[in-house]
């Protein structure tokens, strides 16, 4: 990628690398302005499948990278044997990123990333009131992060799972739109680690700018590499708390 850019604009590869690094960092510096938690998310989420009080949908996605330094390389090899960064994202119902964490290696578990995030600390401090995040079974079910039931046995539990799937799908769609708009996120980032992190954050900022300004998404027919839907369950990672989820099922989905 860098060599192609260098040839196109008539500079050396080293100069092109510096330009990409500085521009990416400058755009990434706009993160606080364009990637932020919004207060008015729950109504739009409710319109999807009548799931109440949702703050945002959370998941992680792998961004392929070149082989890192040999001393740390294996940390970045994910379960598929590919070098990657495991990137956490939270979005609203309009596919706007509200949180992006791009500093963990591909071997890191989704729940580990969340458990060590500022977002989790904010949730535990009650910063978002009685609103919930919604995520898949890679996360522990807690009082502020709702996950699906692995073995639903009642009509109400099945209704909950169906609404959960439809609502949580927003983050998968958000990742899809983001990666189609910036194919480097699916193909492979071949630059130094610091620049890689800056590129990931910068593209999340640009994604939000595009969404806010109604710039059309890239044609969904464009073929991009697909991630496996395999989930590593959160057993033993963090404390589970099913009481809030069960109360929600009883109050909202048992009708």
UniProtKB/TrEMBL annotation:
Its main location: nucleus. One of its GO terms (molecular function) is hydrolase activity. Keywords: Hydrolase, Metal-binding, Nuclease, Nucleus. InterPro entries: HARBI1-like (IPR045249), HARBI1_dom (IPR027806). Residues 58-208 form the DDE Tnp4 domain. Pfam families: DDE_Tnp_4. GO terms for cellular component: nucleus. Its cofactor is a divalent metal cation. It is found in: Nucleus. It comes from the Eukaryota. Belongs to the HARBI1 family. PANTHER family: DDE TNP4 DOMAIN-CONTAINING PROTEIN-RELATED, PTHR22930. This is DDE Tnp4 domain-containing protein. It comes from Parnassius mnemosyne (clouded apollo).
